Amino acid sequence: AAPVDVGSLIASANAAWAGIRSYRAVEVSGPAGGQPAGTPTTPGATPPGAAGDVLIVDEVVFPDRRRQTISEGGLASEIIATGGLLYMRGALAATFVDATAGLTSWVIVDPARVPVGSPLATFVSRFIGPEATAFTAPFGVPSPETASLPIRSLGPVASESRACEAYEVVQTTQIGERVEIVLAVDDAGLPCYQETRAGTITNRVTYSGFDGDIVIQIPDGAVPAANFGPLDVPEASPGASPPASPTA
Questions:
Q1: Integer Cα distance of 76 and 151 in angstroms
Q2: Domains of the chain, earliest start first
Q3: What pLDDT, in 10s, does the model give residues 149-185?
Q4: What is the pTM for the complete model shown?
Q5: If you write DSSP's letter for every residue of 6-37 in order, what string do you get?
Q6: Which pLDDT belongs to residue 51?
Q7: Quick one: 41 exposed, middle or buried, by C-beta within 10 A (0-12, 13-18, 19+)?
């Protein structure tokens, strides 16, 4: 049966998500008026971002491996989470961890050594620990109020090489701002994309590569972050990422 509200749509998507072992997600945030919902793209390709956009590419392998690249304002960052440690290089590493490391060197962050309540601790919690939402179903668990909201079918759409069905839900914030959310799923119930439009900003996350052969390894040449003292550094994996300039 076709879903009639947010709760039934997300319940179906979350059920399909169970058992997934890897996936890829591409998030683009920026001024509204960019690529419309359902626009086909080359499978596995990174969509072009307009000036002012933030582009985030995530690759996830369960239970705890994640690689993320971020491109914003001409600056790039790369983060790898594996084995309870975070490996960082690029603009965010220079900002949050060690300004002397430059933009191309990998630094290792042990969450146990990060000051509690610091901006870096908040950032690390997105990758390691119970708040690391990349390892949970992407549409989350809606509140009872949100689950009861009706949805409107937008019909079939294409997302990369997949045939999907899109649904729209409209909400109004406490300050009266209209928020439009489009959730698209394929025939199996797996997410195709989620697009949120609020005011002049659009955020779109496109999912693909389910159960694909994604390899995430400890980067070669990574050194402990100088700010947090010595730690036991795992050996780099064969064929690990070289310490080159990060790209999104």
A1: 37
A2: 6-224 (2.50.20.20)
A3: 999 999 999 998 899 999 999 988 888 899 999 999 9
A4: 0.81
A5: HHHHHHHHHHHHTT--EEEEEEEEEESSSSPT
A6: 54
A7: middle
- Burial of residue 198, with CB atoms counted within 10 A of its CB: 0-12 exposed, 13-18 middle, 19 or more buried: middle
Terminal-to-terminal C-alpha distance of the chain:
40
Q: Which letter, b or e, does each residue of 179-193 get, where b requires 16 or more Cβ atoms within 10 Å of its Cβ?
A: eebbbbbbeebbbbb
Pairing status of strand 85-90 against strand 107-109: antiparallel
CB-based contacts of 128, cutoff 8 Å, min separation 6: 64, 81, 84, 85, 86, 111
Pairing of strands 107-109, 223-224: parallel
Minimum mean pLDDT range among 20-29, 130-139, 142-151, 204-213: 130-139
Cβ neighbours of residue 123 closer than 8 Å, sequence gap 6 or more: 92, 96
| 226 secondary structure, DSSP code | G
Buried b / exposed e over 44-55, threshold 16 CB at 10 Å, is: eebbebeeebeb
C-alpha distances in Å from residue 170, one per residue of 4, 31, 152: 14, 19, 9
Between the CA atoms of 118, 124, 128 and 133, what dihedral angle is there, to the nearest 10 degrees? Answer: 100
For residue 221, give every residue at least 6 positions away whose Cβ sits within 8 Å of its Cβ, in sequence order, or none. 105, 106, 236, 242, 243
